DNA sequence: CTTTTTGAATGGTTAAACCATTATTATGGT
DNA sequence: ACCATAATAATGGTTTAACCATTCAAAAAG
């Protein structure tokens, strides 16, 4: 953990003082004057630097914290630490939009379908022989779990395959999108406590066919199967939901 | 604008009091006890309701504001108004991730390409004859602007076509994704001050071919052309960027 | 009836103090 | 010397009470 950093902050003037302070600290973080892991000075010190009251400074820190730019810890040696910009905020905001009815679960499932298809397509184009080998190992592992009837282990591997394909696709935004969507739809999928042997075999076949298509350099085919794969989840989910009414 | 609403708030206890207050108000908004347009009581009143200090309450309000759940206005009749959950927060967060280097412009361009393709595909499947007619009108309008050499007007219509197709696709998440990505990439596209007559004709042809594919019920073809359409922007953008180095 | 003035309601800010949590340091027993 | 415990200090969390700044509406002036 790095020590405090001097960042040449300036005194404020605008309408909402705390906003001005937010802007200054955010700018320092985004232009790498402050880097992930750096600690901001203690509140009582920052207060003097900006020449504002502690209350106003704390409003600024709340905003930065909510933006995901800093993380605040208690006690001696605590304080505000600069964070890596991650997906938590995207995930949370999307979750808010779902809960507030702005988005439907169906929308998200359909979106996920397209995203996973595109990832499969890009991954097929960009996969190296080593990448394919990794996927083959995972799928072989999944085959073993399937023959053992180990549902939980199979689902873990299924997820690992999706994650690995995201890496191979080589586009961070697709990876984030897949993760955010998955995190927000997981609680609906989790109603699949009746994940039977037959379903497991269906899904295993999907994985095998996707990797085969990647080996054969058939991006369109890989995308098609990946979409179908997600589609199967979506259909079950929607059927369950309609039964719940 | 609705009046104040009674929402049965409870007194607090947790570690971070302001977080507990955030949770309670957020819950009231998400379960529709508080609806968009409703005003929260004034700070001095909320303060008493929760039995906390005004400073702590204001930290809560800052967080809710940053989440996009409320909007705060000054002066008599001002206060905290419940907001519709929109895309501003997604747009801002994505912007932060770009600026902090977590995402590259190339990633976003490629993502946009896939999104617009999927929208074109879905829109083709779901378009009614009336929808097609609207698109035809827009494209005809674009043709006129092209023949007049009216670049700005053409770009406005191009955007309107994309927006309309998003509506036809019927998936709010795809629409949001397209908007968020577009908002974050616009400043890079805006370097196209050299949008020539030839480019305009190229793009007009794309639009005409997309609508044709939709009429012919060819979702794959529509998606392919839409992707190509975006791809053309991306290539120019990347070429510009590399020249800038 | 229109314009101007005034006042009240509301968010924005300050100040100084105290509380709660945590890591470090000092203490004391073995 | 070592380990467990207690004291200490640094830091964020909270409270209180006051005052400032902005806005809208009602009262006053013309």
Automatic annotation (TrEMBL), chains A, B:
Family matches, as PROSITE patterns: HTH_GNTR (PS50949)
Domain HTH gntR-type: 15-85
One Pfam family of this chain: GntR
UniProt keyword terms in alphabetical order: DNA-binding, Transcription, Transcription regulation
GO MF, one annotated term: DNA-binding transcription factor activity
Name of this protein: Transcriptional regulator, GntR family
Species whose genome carries this gene: Desulfocicer vacuolatum DSM 3385
């Amino acid at each position: 953990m790095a020590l405090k950093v001097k960042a040449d902050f300036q005194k404020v003037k605008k309408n909402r003082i705390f906003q001005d302070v937010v802007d200054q600290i955010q700018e320092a973080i985004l232009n790498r004057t402050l880097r992930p892991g750096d600690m901001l000075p203690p509140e009582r010190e920052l207060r003097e630097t900006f020449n504002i009251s502690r209350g106003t400074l704390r409003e600024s820190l709340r905003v930065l914290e909510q933006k995901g730019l800093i993380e605040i810890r208690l006690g001696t040696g605590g304080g505000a630490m600069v964070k890596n910009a991650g997906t938590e905020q995207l995930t949370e905001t999307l979750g808010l939009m779902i809960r507030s009815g702005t988005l439907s679960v169906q929308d998200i499932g359909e979106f996920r379908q397209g995203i996973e298809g595109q990832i499969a397509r890009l991954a097929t184009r960009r996969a190296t022989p080593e990448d394919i080998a990794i996927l083959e190992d995972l799928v072989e592992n999944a085959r073993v779990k399937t023959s053992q009837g180990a549902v939980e282990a199979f689902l873990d591997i299924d997820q690992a395959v999706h994650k690995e394909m995201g890496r191979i696709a080589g586009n961070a935004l697709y990876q984030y999108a897949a993760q955010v969507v998955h995190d927000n739809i997981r609680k609906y999928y989790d109603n699949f406590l009746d994940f039977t042997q037959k379903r497991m075999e269906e899904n295993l076949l999907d994985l095998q066919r996707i990797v085969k298509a990647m080996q054969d350099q058939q991006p369109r085919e890989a995308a098609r199967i990946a979409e179908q794969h997600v589609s199967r989840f979506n259909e079950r989910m929607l059927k369950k939901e309609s039964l719940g009414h």
